[in-house]
Design a protein that fits this description.
The complex is a heterodimer. By secondary structure, chain A is α+β, with helices and mostly antiparallel strands. Helices cover 64% and strands 10% of the residues of chain A. In chain B, strand 3 and strand 4 form a beta hairpin. The chains are: A alpha+beta, B alpha+beta.
Chain lengths: 416, 373
């Protein structure tokens, strides 16, 4: 695997070749900066999370909107914060719209599939499989639509972003590239990353200026090297180990954290190379995230969040043990005296601990994973040449009533 | 700006203004005009006045070093300034700027609730009822087997294969004798399969494909074979009307819809469970009474007084207490007292009872799960 120059395509690109009427003699770079602090995002996540639980999930539209406003406003280039302008009610509306359509699909289609599956195959496997397969294109469709909504509600320097319609095209391509990735045992993963990013980027606008993704998919291949090497060496060491050298299994064990590092490395490097290959007219970027830092944030953040949040599961565990003990251990007399009061209070303890677990997990991952990642990727990103940024004009508002209802209803995890 | 110190008009402050037309950052001087109650923004190509009462803070800002301001009169433009103390002058700074019409939200909310209700309570049940008639016997049997495996897994806490089946030899024969006597004069859509689960719950239920499932607790609680026969006859009623098949098909449809509505976070699982119970209970009320009526006939044909069903209900009542109100709804059966009364009323005057099982068969049946504990 040959190595490309360290900073990626940026150094190889001849920026002077980009034609511009507004070229500055000495471009003044706009440095990225992230001003959000952990305490505030933790407080915001906890408060909105509690409200979400209390309102049986209705407040989640407000929760997401408020968190986005916070994150967006923390991102600054050249000192100017971005702004998120989504309206929670608009999100609620889109969700209701999606529910009407999906309720029909999920209710009726699942029922018919279950019937056919049992009638024809005497089994429900076919029904689950088809039901899942039927949702896959919808899932990618929803992701694209969600991105369109979020970009349409994002502004920087007063100018809106936008994404052209094209959700079905995206869904088919995503399925195709996923298929290629799976049958190539992951070797074509960079192809998928690149082509999907290109599809999205080439349809993205900032005001009246269209973005373009340059480069080729092979650009991302070196980013995969740690994943590939870790897998190859793990497989090799298992083979050696099975042939009578048990020590080789020690090498296999080391490949696990290496593989995890490889994933972080891919995340950081693919972001770097894709961003450096993006262009908005004559505006160009330079990204230099540090893979080790990304790995550290994931490792430390997830471990800490999991460790702390799991404390809240202890009461739930104790309640379960108490219920099981009463049911199994002391069968008859104790079971009779195990009255409704005790079981009621144990249920309440169980539910409370279940909710606090999810709440604390969400708040902690915001604090120790999402926010530090955003901070790192923003702070290592520079608009190296603002080019003719000042000539960019506003684009019309994309009304998009459906908002990200489908993504919300299908629970498509789109970060925040 | 608190009003104690008179503010000098034309006091010069600085800010950056974005007009939402171009990406140009325009440097502006800010003039706080307390007399006219407005903030005047002046720059090279800017001359704007925002009334104090129109000025809003853009909410949830991460940066605490300055202000991001907007005006209700010009909702797109933004003013960024480092002078935080300015905020004091704007009385309505925390008020919201309304984006989406409330009326449209209400319309969509109503439409969504109505259509989901229509799908869950009308469309899915109707389709389930129709499809249940067309499902071939082997398919129905497979559906029942799958459901039984699920139930065994859910009740058996740790073991791989789920809760144990009771297969005592003599007990199985006694059960078969009981089943033969009861079904002698009844035409059922599918042959009945009896299963006994080793669990202390006082319960019995029917599953698709002619499965009738007893829990050990019910056999132990019963005093006479006639009481077990009565429950058996009741479950045969469910098999005859294919209630379990309908219910299984129906929950395949409705569970997904409800999961969709409530989302996963915030314990969607809990709401889902309660709602599903509510639907099931509503469905069962009518079906239970029909199964009772079916049981009276089957019992009378086999020479057992229908009141035996009533005495079994007495035992349910003794173990769980008479449930009323919302709890009764969740127990998915019409009030037990009413059903006991109905079972007594269904027994004709001077009914001649025949014993259904011998004493030996009865003790074998009770010991089907092995020595009693």
């Amino acid at each position: 695997m040959s190595e490309l120059p360290e900073a990626g395509p940026w150094h190889r690109r001849d920026t002077d070749a980009i034609p511009t009427r507004y070229r500055h003699a000495n471009p003044e770079p706009l440095d990225g900066d992230f001003v959000g602090d952990r305490g505030r995002v933790f407080g915001l996540a906890v408060r909105t999370g509690i409200l979400t639980v209390l309102t049986l999930g209705i407040y989640r539209f407000w929760m997401k909107t408020r968190l986005r406003r916070f994150y967006w406003s923390a991102v600054r280039f050249g000192g100017v914060p971005a702004e998120y302008l989504g309206d929670p009610l608009e999100k609620l509306l889109g969700f209701l719209f999606a529910v009407v359509i999906l309720a029909f699909y999920i209710g009726v289609v699942n029922l018919v599939l279950m019937f056919l599956s049992f009638s024809l195959f005497q089994d429900n496997f076919a029904a689950y499989l088809l039901s899942f397969v039927g949702v896959v294109p919808l899932w990618f469709y929803a992701r694209y639509r969600a991105r369109r909504y979020v970009l349409a509600r994002t502004r920087w320097r007063g100018i809106r972003f936008g994404l052209e319609p094209g959700a079905w095209g995206y869904a088919w391509r995503a399925i195709g590239y996923w298929f290629l990735t799976i049958i190539s045992a992951g070797l074509l993963w960079p192809l998928m990353t690149f082509q999907l990013e290109k599809y999205r980027t080439n349809r993205t606008w900032y005001g009246d200026c269209q973005l373009t993704q340059e480069g080729r998919w092979t650009l991302l291949f070196p980013a995969l090297r740690h994943v590939l090497l870790a897998v190859l060496i793990a497989v090799g060491s298992v083979f050696v180990g099975l042939n009578g050298t048990p020590l080789a299994f020690g090498v296999t064990a080391l490949c696990v954290p290496w593989f995890a590092y490889g994933l972080a490395y891919y995340r950081a490097k693919s972001f770097e190379r894709l961003t450096n290959g993006k262009r908005a007219g004559d505006v160009v970027f330079l990204s230099k995230p540090r893979p080790m830092r990304v790995f550290g944030i994931y490792g430390f953040g997830l471990a800490l969040s999991g460790f702390v949040a799991s404390f809240f599961l202890v009461p739930l565990g104790l309640a379960l043990v108490a219920v099981l003990g009463a049911m199994l251990g002391f069968e008859d007399e104790a079971a009779m005296s195990f009255d409704l009061m005790t079981s009621g209070s144990l249920t309440v303890i169980g539910i409370l601990s279940y909710f606090t677990f999810f709440l604390s997990w969400a708040a902690l991952t915001h604090t120790f994973v999402t926010l530090p990642l955003w901070a790192h990727f923003t702070e290592t990103l520079t608009v190296v040449d603002p080019g003719s940024l000042e000539a960019i004009r506003q684009r019309p508002r994309d009304e998009f009533d459906e908002a990200e209802g489908f993504a919300e209803a299908l629970d498509v995890g789109a970060g925040i | 700006m608190s009003g104690i110190i008179p503010t000098v008009p034309h006091e010069a402050l600085r800010g950056v203004y974005f007009d939402a037309q171009s990406a140009v950052a325009q440097d502006v001087r800010l003039v706080v005009d307390s007399g006219a109650q407005q903030l005047v923004l002046r720059g090279e190509a800017v001359d704007v006045a925002w009334r104090f009462e129109d000025i809003r803070l853009v909410p949830d800002q991460a940066g605490q070093g300055g202000l991001v301001l907007r005006s209700a009169s010009d909702p797109e433009a933004r003013l960024l300034t480092a002078h935080r103390e300015l905020a004091e002058a704007f009385p309505a700074r925390r008020r919201r700027v309304i984006g989406v019409e409330r009326g449209r939200i209400a319309c969509w909310a109503l439409a969504a609730v109505a259509s989901v209700a229509l799908i869950v309570f009308v469309l899915v049940p109707t389709m389930a009822n129709q499809l249940a008639r067309f499902i071939p016997p082997e398919g129905e049997k497979a559906l029942g087997d799958a459901t039984l495996t699920q139930i065994r897994g859910a009740l058996g806490d740790n073991s791989q294969s789920g809760i144990r089946l009771c297969t005592g030899h003599e007990g199985t024969k006694a059960f078969a004798a009981l089943a033969t006597k009861l079904s002698a004069n009844v035409a059922l859509p599918v042959p009945v399969t009896v299963t006994v689960l080793d669990h202390r719950m006082v319960n019995a239920f029917a599953l698709p494909g002619g499965h009738i499932v007893f829990m050990r607790g019910l056999l132990e609680a019963a005093d006479r074979p006639e009481e077990v026969a009565a429950v058996f006859a009741h479950e045969m009623g469910h098999v005859a009307s294919r209630d379990p098949t309908r219910h299984a098909l129906r929950s395949a449809g409705s569970i997904g819809v409800l999961g969709l509505l409530f989302g996963d976070f915030a314990g969607g699982a809990l709401v889902l469970f309660l709602t599903e119970q509510l639907i099931e209970a509503q469905y069962s009320q009518g079906a239970e009474s029909d199964a009772d009526v079916f049981a009276y006939e089957v019992l009378a044909e086999a020479g057992i007084p229908p009141s035996a069903l009533g005495s079994m209900f007495e035992r349910f009542k003794a173990t769980s207490g008479a449930a009323k109100g919302i709890t009764a709804h969740f127990l998915s059966h019409p009030s037990l007292a009413e059903r006991i009364e109905a079972a007594r009323a269904a027994t004709p005057e001077g009914f001649v009872a025949k014993p259904i099982l011998s004493d030996a068969q009865w003790s074998a049946l009770k010991a089907i799960c092995g020595p009693s504990r």
